[in-house]
Amino acid sequence: LACKNCDTFPCARDRCLCPCFKRRLAMTTPTNDSVRQLDQQYVFHSWSAQEGRHPLVIAGGKGCRLWDYEGHRYLDFSSQLVNTNIGAQHPKVIEAIKAQAEQLTTIAPATANLARGEAARLILSHVSDRFSKVFFTNAGADANENAIRMARLYTGRDKVLSSYRSYHGNTGSAICATGDWRRLPNDYARGHVHFFTPYLYRSEFNAATEEEECAAALRHLRRIIECEGPSTIAAILLETIPGTAGILMPPEGYLKGVEALAREFGIVLIMDEVMAGFGRTGRWFTFQHYGIEPDLITFAKGVNSGYVPAGGVILSNEISHFFDNRMFPGGLTYSGHPLAMAAIVATITAMEDEGIVEHAARIGDDIIAPALRRLAERCPIVGDVRGKGVFHAIELVSDRETRAPLPAAQMAVLKADLLARGMLSFIAENRIHVVPPCVVTVEEAEEGLAIIEAALTALARSQD
Ligand code: PLP
């Protein structure tokens, strides 16, 4: 049968691809099935094989709760990709985006615009006066791309040192700087050298204590710098606390030691605060816990919780002045997009007014950290717990003695169980990352932790 509307043949309703059917499908009252079907039919997905996906359907949200088209509600303990620091649909941010949309939706990066200037001023108000300018990007990966480019131009050197256990984004240089498997299919750039950063639970250095791990990791980095040749190294790029690689807490003194090595050899120190920044660990920026001052800071995610894509690089006075009389060959059509900038201004203002950063610190110290310590005592498959603020990881093992990671199949069972219990989780390899929005309430934090404990207890019992 031909389609009644556009006369295209054939029209089999649920399989028809004629233009008017596509329109109709998009316009009918959505259900979980219809939206999932639409997605499966037309959307090409990142980081995934295209077949066999059964994506979760999300229709709306508020704060730490998200829901689908059929009224199922979820507690979001993932902050999506650890970006919704301010939760879903914060009314002041939504209002600011609407107001900016009424006034001006887009303008080229080279123009002066109130929202852009205000966003930069507010970001700079949360770092020391070592920093004086903000370069805006569309996301975290291009923030790292541009920071690397700045460091190369500034030093006239080429190499970038970064950790094997890191993720810096999925574009040219950022994916090459990424240390783990995610780099391998994309590794085509020269000048990227990787090294080991501290991870006491699985020490590369056979260290038994934090002090030993720290000292060995610093000796290792010094050797890498000496062997590569300090005069060839433009930058050391590090996540302050490596996030997707496992929320790996730097031991006391490690980042100070890295800072000292960078200064000794004239290397630009870039701290990637894309995931750890903007309140996640209970400070505006995580490096502020460690008494260091980088040369460049990259950010994205929490700066406006991803309500409109944005990221950027914060430049030290020195690097910023270097470009006073030199063109910086970077930037994209939408860099510093007005809607994203308005969302940044409203997000930072709301975080200041509502004490959201301090709240995240308290939730971490008073609720999450003690609960995870108790969990580690009670549950035999918990190997290690670590973190700060709303940035914690639970590392799961099948044997506490050997520390053998819990196999992927069991992690998949766990993820499905957490979802069935009403929780969206961030699971990476053999870890649950406890990363709710910074605005998570005490009750929500306790609810989420109880769900995790119940799911882990059930999983541990199923192994007996
Ligand atoms: N840097 C870190 C530490 C990240 O965690 C991520 C993303 O997860 C990125 C960079 C890349 O950010 P984006 O996905 O916004 O490009």
From TrEMBL:
It comes from Zymobacter palmae. GO terms for cellular component: cytosol. InterPro entries: Aminotrans_3, Aminotrans_3_PPA_site, PyrdxlP-dep_Trfase, PyrdxlP-dep_Trfase_major, PyrdxlP-dep_Trfase_small. The keyword Transferase applies. GO terms for molecular function: pyridoxal phosphate binding; transaminase activity. Belongs to the class-III pyridoxal-phosphate-dependent aminotransferase family. This is 4-aminobutyrate aminotransferase. Keywords: Aminotransferase, Pyridoxal phosphate, Transferase. Pfam families: Aminotran_3 (PF00202).
